[in-house]
Design brief:
Blueprint: E1 2-5, H1 11-16, E2 59-69, E3 74-85, E4 91-97, H2 108-112, H3 123-130, E5 139-145, E6 154-157, E7 160-169, E8 173-184, H4 188-191, E9 196-200, E10 205-210, E11 216-217, E12 220-221, E13 225-226, E14 242-251, E15 255-258, E16 261-262, H5 265-268, H6 271-280, E17 287-290, H7 292-299, E18 306-316, E19 321-324, E20 328-336, E21 339-347, H8 354-373, E22 381-386, E23 391-394, E24 397-400, H9 412-427, H10 444-461, H11 476-479, H12 499-518, H13 521-535, H14 542-553, H15 558-565, E25 573-583, H16 588-601, H17 606-614, H18 619-622, H19 640-651, H20 655-662, E26 666-674, E27 682-688, E28 693-698, E29 709-716, E30 720-725, E31 740-741, H21 763-766
Parallel strand pairs: 1-25, 2-14, 21-22, 22-24
Antiparallel strand pairs: 2-3, 3-8, 4-7, 4-11, 5-8, 6-7, 9-10, 10-19, 12-13, 14-18, 15-19, 16-18, 17-20, 20-21, 23-24, 25-26, 26-29, 27-28, 27-30, 30-31
Length: 784
């Protein structure tokens, strides 16, 4: 619709005066500062989001000895724990985590597991419901003060264990006690879990991926006191930092990889393997330490004797390891800001050629990418292990899935799935292994931040990388769901309904939108890096993250945290209407010509069109004497009086006002509605009549006085053909059909298929690509 603006002499007052401001409030204040949602700052944690002058955290150092029984798939262990109380409080007891107790027959996990029955069910599904026949819980054999000290009383409460001290542990004091235990390792493909073994029936060998294998100290901090919320299987782990020395006794023909650095290579590796390992430290590509031929040969034996592998790790929050005679092992060196790091992978032959080509390279790429955006990686190694566990992270070591078909071919989904899971799990070294957030309470603080960094690393791997999460458009299906199917991101880990969308996808998308649309890359990157630097090797909370991002950028983001993290509303902005205005120039020659053009272009009504046929002659046509002055009058003809009046008008205007009058500007009043409820920046693309385009980014504060609907005036020199909201899919808008004006039709597709379909094959199989291609870094081509 097109209108004319009649300009007064005070042009600025007309367009910018308070009479045109929108003062109608919607009844809610989505731009209110976060108040009770955030804890009161203290000397431990400041209002800026940085650790305070009195910040403290506890320390737990471990000396662990474990033995793996490959015949019974069980582990026995002894650990000496030195717990240092750096808090200002006296502690009369300590809490330890017994995570394997979720596999106890009477576990809270089993008791609270919900399920439904169907007309047809697999034996596996029924076994999962019954949870019978396997007890993988910890069996505590003894707890006592170190050495020949007295036994310590303890109480087991499902997955938590309280150890009562003989006397309160005072501030700045330490206590060392010894725990002995044993347990049966779970069959991971059948029982599930973040740790366990996989059995290979073809060669009758086991591959062990072992974590949560020892009683672990819980966190005691200034926020929660003891974090002893039960482990039910979804909320992961909260752990203090410490130094570890772990001795792992396994069959002599096993290869053992673990968190930390190997302390006794001379006792467990051959001279050739040690030479290869030394070569790998300076290699630009993976060097094979244990070859596929060597691993295949080892699969055929069954050593009766054992070897003990000793690993040490400093300033880590946990420890994990893997053991199998099936392992191929490769490694390559890289340097992170002057510090050497070994990127390594352990995997069975069933993983080749995929793993030999991509795993270790993915490890190295992750360390480079994340180090740029957070802090430099400071541990000596980073390891990717392949087994049945799809993806799970520990300091310096992670377990990853994805393997090719038996013929060596693989789909694109498998290839990129492997690269992505390695990036993701190795990336967890930064969140939460270094920036040590509370996973038991807030999954998003490690998974969401890590998924965001994973997305950035994937895009640096390959142009057009098919990332599953990170782009705003990918979270739209989740945010379009009914409210009862969603939780706010700020929901406890064990209570989240859709963990993947809520704790991974939505926070990662939120950070991407902050970086690209709300803050800009420069401000975001600086603030995000500041957060990582402030809280490296410490225990941050959500408030510390929110406050640091604002403190380091100077951007008020309370509205964003409130909408994206504390709410479940979605983005759905709509252009409801556009009104087009032109300035009335007062020049009769211009304005009358325009009006004549508009009249000529106006469509005839249906009645007018039919009357031309039905009424060949009107009465005035038949009787000319009925005509008078007005029958020949042209209202749009320009008279001398009109011209004189125009000149008088011009004489009253200043030169600047005359310039504005004659510019021929276009004024577009755009009516916007926030249908989804989530306040967001308004990104508007104007496409002009000549085909050129302009994009205007309007901050979210446009909604501050009315969260529901606003109008915005755009002034252009060229006429606008159309307006489009969010043209580059920046804001996760859930309904694009109302983003254009005039409205645009958005095509959809449906697929036709035959009832009988051929078995699916991957493109490699379809093209008959040989699986015997050269294997990089992990094949049977030798150790170099």
């Amino acid at each position: 619709m097109r209108f004319r603006i009649l300009l007064a002499t005070a042009l600025g007052a007309l367009l910018a005066g308070p009479a045109l401001a929108q003062q109608t409030h919607s009844g809610t204040d989505k731009f209110a500062q976060l108040g009770t949602e955030l804890p009161t700052p203290t000397t431990f944690r400041t209002a800026s989001g940085a650790p305070g002058k009195d910040y403290w955290q506890q320390r737990a150092d471990y000396n662990i000895r474990v033995t793996l029984n490959d015949e019974t798939q069980s582990i026995t262990g002894t650990e000496d724990i030195t717990y240092t109380n750096l808090s200002p409080d006296k502690l009369s007891y300590l809490w330890l985590q017994l995570d394997a107790n979720i596999y106890a027959p009477n576990s809270m996990t089993a008791a609270t597991q919900t399920a439904s029955l169907q007309d047809k069910m697999s034996f596996g599904a029924l076994e999962y419901i019954q949870r019978t026949g396997f007890d993988g819980s910890f069996k505590i054999d003894d707890i006592r003060m170190k050495g020949a000290g007295s036994q310590l009383p303890y109480t087991i409460n499902y997955t938590m264990m309280r150890v009562d001290l003989p006397r309160p542990l005072a501030p700045k004091q330490a206590v060392t006690f010894t725990v002995k235990w044993h347990y049966t390792v779970n069959d991971q493909p059948k029982v599930g879990g973040r740790s366990g073994y996989e059995f290979f029936p073809e060669d009758k060998n086991y591959l062990y991926e072992i974590a949560q294998f020892y009683p672990r100290m819980a966190v005691y901090d200034d926020v929660n006191g003891w974090q002893h919320k039960q482990f039910l299987g979804q909320g992961e782990f909260t752990l203090p930092f410490g130094d570890y020395r772990v001795s792992i006794t396994a069959p002599a023909d096993h290869v053992v990889g673990a968190t930390g650095t190997l302390q006794n290579a001379e006792q467990v590796l051959s001279a050739t393997q040690r030479q290869r390992l030394a070569q790998a430290k300076n290699a630009a590509k993976p060097v094979v330490i244990v070859t596929q031929d060597e691993a295949t040969k080892a699969e055929q034996g069954r050593a009766k004797n054992t070897k003990t592998w000793v690993y040490a790790a400093k300033n880590v929050r946990d420890f994990a390891w893997a053991s199998s005679r099936k392992f191929i092992w490769d490694a390559m060196g890289l340097t992170i800001e002057g510090k050497p790091v070994l990127a390594m992978s352990y995997y069975p032959k069933e993983a080749n050629p995929l793993w030999g080509q991509y795993s270790t390279q993915s490890v190295a790429h992750t360390l480079r990418s994340y180090s740029k955006r957070t802090i430099p990686y400071q541990y000596p190694v980073a390891i990717s292990v392949h087994g049945s566990i799809g993806g799970m992270e520990y300091p310096m070591l992670c377990f990853n899935g994805y393997r090719p078909e038996k013929d060596g071919t693989y789909s694109a989904a498998t290839k990129y799935g492997l690269i992505s899971v390695v990036i993701h799990e190795v990336g967890h070294n930064f969140f939460p292994m270094i920036v040590n957030s509370d996973e038991r309470q807030w999954t998003w603080m490690d998974e969401g931040l890590n998924t965001f960094c994973q997305y950035l690393a994937e895009q640096e791997w390959e142009r057009g990388y098919p990332s599953r999460r990170g782009e705003p458009a990918q979270i739209v299906p989740y945010m379009s769901m009914a409210a009862n199917l969603q939780n706010p991101i700020m929901t406890n880990s064990e209570s989240v309904l859709q963990l993947g969308n809520n704790a991974y996808g939505k926070p990662a998308t939120a950070l991407n939108i902050l970086r690209e649309t709300v803050m800009g890359r420069e401000l975001f990157d600086y603030a995000f890096k500041t957060y990582a630097q402030r809280w490296a090797y410490k225990h941050p909370t959500p408030a510390d993250f929110f406050r640091t991002m604002e403190d380091a950028s100077g951007v008020d983001l309370d509205w964003f945290w409130r909408g994206w993290f504390y709410g479940t509303e979605h983005t759905d902005l709509s252009i409801e209407n556009v009104q087009w205005y032109k300035v009335d120039s007062k020049n009769p020659e211009i304005e009358n010509a325009r009006r004549r053009e508009e009249l000529n272009a106006a469509p005839q009504t249906l009645s007018q069109q039919r009357n031309l046929q039905a009424i060949p002659k009107t009465l005035v046509d038949e009787r000319p004497e009925l005509k008078d002055f007005y029958n020949g009058y042209d209202a749009l003809a320009v008279s001398d009086t009109d011209k004189a009046r125009y000149q008088q008008y011009l004489a009253k205007l200043t030169p600047k006002e005359q310039e504005t009058l004659n510019k021929g500007l276009n004024f577009y009043q755009v009516s916007l509605k926030n249908l989804g409820g989530l306040v967001m920046p308004v990104v508007v693309q104007m496409t002009f009549n000549d085909g050129t385009q302009e994009v205007v980014n309007i901050p979210a504060e446009i909604w501050r006085k009315n969260n529901a609907e606003v109008t915005k005036v755009f002034v252009t020199e060229k006429p606008v053909a159309s307006f489009t909201l969010d043209p580059y899919l920046q804001t996760a808008d859930t309904d694009l059909s109302n983003n254009g004006f005039p409205r645009k039709l958005a095509p959809s597709r449906f697929e036709l298929f035959q009832q009988q379909q051929q078995p699916a094959t991957n493109p490699m199989q379809q093209r008959n690509v040989s699986s015997q291609q050269p294997q990089q870094g992990g094949g049977s081509t030798g150790g170099r």
